[in-house]
Amino acid sequence: MKLLVCVSKTPDTTTKIKFTSDNSELDTNGVQYIMNPYDEWYALVRALELKEAQGGSVTILNVGPAENDTVIRKGLAIGADEAVRINADPQSSLNVAKQIAEYAKGEGFDIVFFGKETIDYNGSEVSAMVAELLDMPFISYASHMEMDGNNATIKRDIEGGVETLSVDTPFVISAAKGLAEQRIPNMRGIMMAKRKPLKVVPAATFDDPVATVSYELPPEKGQVKLIDPENMDELVRLLHEEAKVI
Amino acid sequence: MVLVFAETQKGKLKKAAFEAVTYGYRTAQALGSECVALVIGAAEDAGQLGKYGASKVYQVEDPALEKFDSQTYTRAIAGAAKELDAKVLVLSHSTTGKSLLGRLAARLDAGSVPGVNAVPTTDGGFKVRKPVFSGKAIAEMEIKTDVKVLSLMGNAIQPEVVGDNVGVEALSVPVEAGRITVKDVERVEGTVPLPEAELVVSAGRGMKGPENWGIIEELAEVLGATTACSRPVADTGWRPHHEHVGQTGIAIRPNLYIAAGISGAIQHLAGVNNSKTIVVINKDPDAPFFKAADYGVVGDLFEVVPRLTEALKKFKAEN
Ligand SMILES: Cc1cc2nc3c(=O)[nH]c(=O)nc-3n(C[C@H](O)[C@H](O)[C@H](O)COP(=O)(O)OP(=O)(O)OC[C@H]3O[C@@H](n4cnc5c(N)ncnc54)[C@H](O)[C@@H]3O)c2cc1C
């Protein structure tokens, strides 16, 4: 099976978010970048498991500038066979999706994997866009997947429950918790990653239909009101009269 | 025209549908245009959307749309948007809406913003706001295309009655079945799903073990709240995965979030800090969660939680 895993780069989860003085961009000073956890922990690892079980290849794809190569190498260290970086710095999801679809359409991938969302933009739209652009079924929030030949049985998270479905390849899937278990790259993997191919593909030109105008931080919480642990009637009174939530 | 896709479940409108129509109505007002709603499949109460500002409700019915497949739904909704010449398409930011937003944007070659939480401003471009960095910041985004697709964050606005019921009109659009076969849908019955819940009681590693959750469930029951948990609690199997909230779990914004025995790590806060009111119960006065809380109780949760349950029972009996 020919498997594609699209990975993105996000600030580390412990990042203290701050912006440049005009609030137009993230202040990247001191920010550590990681591979988006959903892409790394679930999408990539499930793709590797499928390859290990039934053969084939795993390609990881990133749309971004050369500085993303560190994150891409980590994907190779975890076990992907090869990597592709589309050399673009798009400002909108649709542009990213079009870059991916442009590359993937001639390659005959059986499954295109994504993480369920990035932890910075929290959009979860690129995967759906790529599915539409490739005219493929899309299974979002997959938490379990079994393959039998070219047929997959997938469980996906829905509000307050789980849906089970069946679909033949090719399809696009977005990975949620449960689809696989995180793998830590070992020394051998890291050494091998250096020799694996990382192909840089020139970008196609597409418009950005959406632009970020500015950022702001949410209003600071006031001082916490401490309640006597013996007096929960007082807490209930405050929730009712002051916060008006009960 | 603003077209709102109103989600249903088991033949009835979801709460998110009313929120989305209220949002669509206000967006239409800002644009000096009209808001109409679209339902797919049976919805006995669809006409009610008129009360929330839909001037018309269209209904598309087709056997191929009985089970959810984002491809089939996208074709139907995009077909309706074209047929009605809709300029703004509003979805709910639910698992269904999130599976559709990107597809619809790609199909209509439209700019899209997922998870908006405020009505667009229209002077000097069409601009919306959405939480980013898992709730640690808010971004203002401008959509530059003629057609725009948005999904509305749950609990971001309260549904508001502005009119009366309207009639429901059948709309015929080309429907073509996709390749997914849905085999089974299992739902946890009886409780409001976390993303929609207005009241949430959550607990963490301070609970010591899964056998102690009775006090959390009792508090949730008295309150009519949904239960949630921190990540390590779900990871060790003390609680089901669907309860895991935070940066790598579900992001929620209930009216009330009660956290017992949760330290308040940055990744946990990322998923809950948009809650309107936060109550933290922790025995460690230096627990970071107190900095993000509105009300704090420093004490042993095994004593405080049952006491809170009793106080609520008393309050409910009196009110
Ligand atoms: C990439 C990444 C992503 C993550 N994503 C998430 C996420 O989405 N959601 C999430 O929750 N975490 C996430 N985490 C984990 C997070 O960093 C914390 O480890 C986790 O939230 C801690 O869970 P906890 O508060 O339940 O446990 P702890 O940190 O162990 O806290 C337990 C708390 O209970 C209190 N306590 C103990 N006994 C009592 C008692 N008897 N009465 C009252 N209080 C008591 C203690 O004082 C302590 O504050 C993530 C971590 C990483 C690295």
From TrEMBL, chain A:
<keyword id="KW-0813">Transport</keyword>
<feature type="domain" description="Electron transfer flavoprotein alpha/beta-subunit N-terminal">
    <location>
        <begin position="23"/>
        <end position="210"/>
    </location>
</feature>
<dbReference type="GO" id="GO:0009055">
    <property type="term" value="F:electron transfer activity"/>
</dbReference>
<dbReference type="InterPro" id="IPR033948">
    <property type="entry name" value="ETF_beta_N"/>
</dbReference>
<keyword id="KW-0249">Electron transport</keyword>
<dbReference type="InterPro" id="IPR014729">
    <property type="entry name" value="Rossmann-like_a/b/a_fold"/>
</dbReference>
<dbReference type="InterPro" id="IPR012255">
    <property type="entry name" value="ETF_b"/>
</dbReference>
<comment type="similarity">
    <text>Belongs to the ETF beta-subunit/FixA family.</text>
</comment>
<dbReference type="InterPro" id="IPR000049">
    <property type="entry name" value="ET-Flavoprotein_bsu_CS"/>
</dbReference>
<dbReference type="Pfam" id="PF01012">
    <property type="entry name" value="ETF"/>
</dbReference>
<dbReference type="InterPro" id="IPR014730">
    <property type="entry name" value="ETF_a/b_N"/>
</dbReference>
<protein>
    <recommendedName>
        <fullName>Electron transfer flavoprotein subunit beta</fullName>
    </recommendedName>
</protein>
UniProtKB/TrEMBL annotation, chain B:
<keyword id="KW-0274">FAD</keyword>
<keyword id="KW-0249">Electron transport</keyword>
<feature type="domain" description="Electron transfer flavoprotein alpha/beta-subunit N-terminal">
    <location>
        <begin position="2"/>
        <end position="192"/>
    </location>
</feature>
<dbReference type="GO" id="GO:0009055">
    <property type="term" value="F:electron transfer activity"/>
</dbReference>
<dbReference type="InterPro" id="IPR014729">
    <property type="entry name" value="Rossmann-like_a/b/a_fold"/>
</dbReference>
<feature type="binding site">
    <location>
        <position position="205"/>
    </location>
    <ligand>
        <name>FAD</name>
    </ligand>
</feature>
<dbReference type="GO" id="GO:0033539">
    <property type="term" value="P:fatty acid beta-oxidation using acyl-CoA dehydrogenase"/>
</dbReference>
<protein>
    <submittedName>
        <fullName>Electron transfer flavoprotein subunit alpha</fullName>
    </submittedName>
</protein>
<dbReference type="Pfam" id="PF00766">
    <property type="entry name" value="ETF_alpha"/>
</dbReference>
<dbReference type="InterPro" id="IPR001308">
    <property type="entry name" value="ETF_a/FixB"/>
</dbReference>
<keyword id="KW-0813">Transport</keyword>
<feature type="binding site">
    <location>
        <begin position="230"/>
        <end position="231"/>
    </location>
    <ligand>
        <name>FAD</name>
    </ligand>
</feature>
<dbReference type="InterPro" id="IPR014731">
    <property type="entry name" value="ETF_asu_C"/>
</dbReference>
<dbReference type="Pfam" id="PF01012">
    <property type="entry name" value="ETF"/>
</dbReference>
<comment type="similarity">
    <text>Belongs to the ETF alpha-subunit/FixB family.</text>
</comment>
<dbReference type="InterPro" id="IPR029035">
    <property type="entry name" value="DHS-like_NAD/FAD-binding_dom"/>
</dbReference>
<feature type="binding site">
    <location>
        <position position="282"/>
    </location>
    <ligand>
        <name>FAD</name>
    </ligand>
</feature>
<feature type="binding site">
    <location>
        <begin position="261"/>
        <end position="268"/>
    </location>
    <ligand>
        <name>FAD</name>
    </ligand>
</feature>
<keyword id="KW-0285">Flavoprotein</keyword>
<dbReference type="GO" id="GO:0050660">
    <property type="term" value="F:flavin adenine dinucleotide binding"/>
</dbReference>
<dbReference type="InterPro" id="IPR014730">
    <property type="entry name" value="ETF_a/b_N"/>
</dbReference>
